[in-house]
Each structure stands twice: as structure tokens, then as C-alpha cells.
Amino acid sequence: MLLITLLLYTALAGAYLLVLPAALYAYMNARWYVASSFERAFMYFLVFFFFPGLILLAPFINFRPQPRKIAS
């Protein structure tokens, strides 16, 4: 029983701190500039909710804008 409880807590912590924030980063990267106002408010709620996991992943993610390609 103790092992099952420990595995369950580990799985939930991993999902909360790693898996769901990584999915949220990918979702925000894809939808940030085309989201409606309701969707943007929902994104802000998700950032608030998953803030600890986002802080853990932030040093490893680079979302700087890509350089523009100017046609000559």
C-alpha cells in the first residue's frame, strides 16, 4: 500500500511540475499571437496554476523571436 501511494504521489508531482507545464509552454508558443481574449485569460489562469512547474522549466526553454528573413 505504501509503494502504491508513493508511486501515485510521484506521478502526480511529475505531471504537475514537468508534463503539464511543458505542454502549456508548447500551447502558448503556438497560440500566443492568435488567441482570443477569453483564450488569453484562460492562458493567464493556467500560468498562475502551473507557476512552480513553469519556473522549473524556464531556464531550459528559449522562446526568443526568430530573426526575420528579409528577401533581397
Automatic annotation (TrEMBL):
Keywords: Membrane, NAD, NADP, Oxidoreductase, Plastoquinone, Quinone, Thylakoid, Translocase, Transmembrane, Transmembrane helix, Transport. It catalyses: a plastoquinone + NADPH + (n+1) H(+)(in) = a plastoquinol + NADP(+) + n H(+)(out); a plastoquinone + NADH + (n+1) H(+)(in) = a plastoquinol + NAD(+) + n H(+)(out). One of its GO terms (cellular component) is plasma membrane-derived thylakoid membrane. One of its GO terms (molecular function) is quinone binding. It is a multi-pass membrane protein. NDH-1 can be composed of about 15 different subunits; different subcomplexes with different compositions have been identified which probably have different functions. Belongs to the complex I NdhL subunit family. This is NAD(P)H-quinone oxidoreductase subunit L.
